[in-house]
Design brief:
Layout (H helix, E strand, L loop, with lengths): L2 E5 L2 E3 L5 E8 L7 E7 L6 E6 L5 E3 L7 E6 L4 E6 L8 E11 L2 E6 L3 E5 L2
Parallel strand pairs: 2-11
Antiparallel strand pairs: 1-3, 3-8, 4-5, 4-9, 5-6, 7-8, 9-10, 9-11
Length: 119
């Protein structure tokens, strides 16, 4: 059974920092592309950052220079370091694991963790 468990969300003031963690079980973590998505109230879920199995990263423009995604394959964990947080970053953040196997997309999601940026 595949599980992705996120942690690290919470309430933070504008300009503050949080680090999200997502620990996976039931998959060969090292070969999966890992991503962080977010969904704000009334908006569609969007990709925030992604890291491939060879540690190539990409980010949406609005978080470049503020967020950093990283992975620790020994711990089956992916992180999202979020600095200089803004109220617009408020959302539920979801961890995603994906890979292609014989043409089939294997795609798994965590339950989400709330991030609220407010004074």
């Amino acid at each position: 059974q595949v599980q992705l468990v996120e942690s690290g969300g919470g309430l933070v003031q504008p300009g503050g920092s949080l680090r999200l963690s997502c620990t996976a079980s039931g998959i060969r973590f090292a070969i999966y592309r890992m991503g962080w998505y977010r969904q704000a109230p009334g908006k569609q879920r969007e990709l925030v950052a992604r890291i491939t199995s060879i540690a190539t990263t990409n980010y949406i423009d609005s978080v470049k220079g503020r967020f950093t995604i990283s992975r620790d394959n020994a711990k089956n964990t992916v992180y999202l370091q979020m600095n200089s947080l803004e109220p617009e970053d408020t959302a539920v953040y979801y961890c995603n694991a994906g890979r292609l196997r014989l043409g089939e997309l294997l795609d798994y999601w965590g339950q989400g963790t709330q991030v609220t940026v407010s004074s």
